[in-house]
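Q: How would the C-alpha cells look for this protein?
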Amino acid sequence: MKTIIPTYKDMVTKVSFFIKQLNLKIRKSTGRPLAIAPEETIALSLWKQEIGIPTKKKIWETFKGNLKCSYKTLVVNMNDMIKYIVVILEAILKWNQKNAHIIKHTDSTDIPVCLNKNATHHKTMKGLASWGHSGKGFYYGIKMSITTDLKRNLLAVRFGTGNSNDRDTFKEMNKDIQGIFVADSGYISKDLEHEFFIENKRMLFAKPKANMKKWVN
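A: Here is the predicted structure in C-alpha cell form.
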C-alpha cells in the first residue's frame, strides 16, 4: 500500500481550519506584524513532529528560502505559540481519531537531549530526561511514542523518560482509540494483548519488525 506523506501546505490548511473552529485569537492587534503568520508558525511546529524532523534548525534550513526571518526569530515565534500549538494538536488528534483507518501502528523513538558525556550537568530537560537504551545504544534524553493510522495520520503522542515502559505508555495513549493495532517486538506481551482487547472493537498484534511489513501489506 502506498504511503501518503502529509505536506506542509496540508498542515497550514488544517491549522487554519482549527483556529477558526476553536475561535483562537492569535494575531497581534497592535505593534509590528510578525515575520511569520501565526498559523504558519504553528503548522511548521506540528509538521516538524509529524514528519519526524529532529530540530528547529533543520526546519529553518529547509524553509529559509521562503521564510522572511532569521533562525532566532523562528525559534522565538515557535516558543511563543506553544500554548496554541498544544490546543490545536489536541483538536487535530481528536479529529484524526474519529476519521482514522481501522489499522493503527504504535511505536516509540529515543530523543537524546545532549551528548552522553554532558548528561551529569545537562539542565534543559531536567526532571524528565533520564538514561535509556535503544537499538542505537545508551542515550540520555526522553522517549516519544506515537500512534498513527495506515494513512500516516497522527492519532496520539506521548513523551516520557528515557527508561519509561513502552507497554504502559501504549495502554494509556490508546485507551480511547479502537481498531486493529500493529506494533513491533517491544510490545509483545500476553498480558498487554489480553488487557487491551475489546471484542469487536480493538485488538493488538505485536510482531517482530520483519513480519510487520508483510502483515500490513
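The radius of gyration is 19 Å.

DSSP finds eight helices and six strands in the chain.

Upvote if useful.
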